[in-house]
Amino acid sequence: MSTDGWRVFGTYGADRDPGNVHGKTALGRALEDALERMITEGGIKSPVTTRRGLRARMRYLTTHQGGPAALADAGVTATAATLRAWTKGARRPRPANAEAIDTAYWNLRARNVLANPGALKQHLNNNGRGTAVEIHPVNQDVVVPSRRRDNLRMRRLQVRYIWDDAVDALAAGNEAALADIWDDVIAELDSDWGAYTYVSHIGLGA
Fold it and tell me: Which of 89, 97, 128, 153 has the smallest set of CB atoms within 10 Å of its CB?
C-alpha cells in the first residue's frame, strides 16, 4: 500500500477484511488475552470431578470474599453442612452441583484477577525486561494489487515501560490512550512505523 493508504485507512481496500484493525484495538485484544491466560493458567488444574479438584475449589470459594455469592449465582443452594462436607471431601456433589461449583470458582477467580490489575502489570513488566510483542501486518489480499507492499512482514519487539499505562487504559476503556501507546510502540520501527498503524493481529509473549 502507498503512504496515502496508511494515512487514510481503506483507501485501497484494506478495510474489506474485518480482521484488519487499528493497533489500539489489536493491543486491547492482546491485553485481554493475556488477562484471560492469567485467569486460567494460574487457576486450579485438577478437574472438579476429582476429589482434589473439588476440595481446592471449595476451599477457594469458602475462604475468599464473595465465595458464597458466587455459589448462589451459579445455582448452588446446598446447606452449610453440605458445603463443609464437600470442602472436606467427605461427600461428593451431584454432577449438576459439581458443574455449578466449577462455574462459581472460575467466575470468582476472574473477578479477583480483574480487581487486581497490578498483577497483570507486574507480569508484563517482567522485572524490567518487558514483554515480546509480535506485530502481524494487515492482510493485503483485499488491497488493490498495485498498492500492495511485498516487504511487510511480522515484526517482533521487546517492549518495556508502557505496560502500566496500557493496563490502566484497558481497564478504563480509554481508546485514545491505547492509540497513543500504540504510536509509541511502533515508533521503534523507524520509517516503517506507518505501515503498522493498522494490523491483523498482535501477540504478547506473556
Answer: 128
Distance separating alpha carbons of residues 163 and 177, to the nearest angstrom: 12
Q: Which residues pair with 172 in a beta bridge?
A: none
Written in H, E and C, the secondary structure of 41-66 is HCCCCCCCCCHHHHHHHHHHHHHCCC
Sheet of 198-204: strand order equals: 21-22, 198-204, 131-137, 155-159
Each residue's pLDDT tens digit, 41-91: 999 999 999 999 999 999 999 999 999 999 999 999 999 999 999 999 999
The per-residue pLDDT for 147 is 55
- Specify the DSSP class assigned to residue 80: H
Task: Return d(Cα 98, Cα 92) in angstroms, integer.
Answer: 8
Domain locations along the chain: 3-38+119-200, 44-116
Alpha carbon 15 to chain centroid, angstroms: 24
Q: Are 120 and 39 in contact (CB under 8 A)?
A: no
Alpha-carbon torsion (61, 63, 65, 69), positive or negative: positive
**pLDDT score for 7:** 53
For the chain, list the strands marked E by DSSP.
Answer: 21-22, 131-137, 155-159, 198-204
For residues 45 and 109, give the distance between their C-alpha atoms in angstroms, rounded to a whole number. 13
- The pLDDT, as a whole number, for residue 148 is 55
Most confident of 20-24, 154-158, 193-197: 154-158
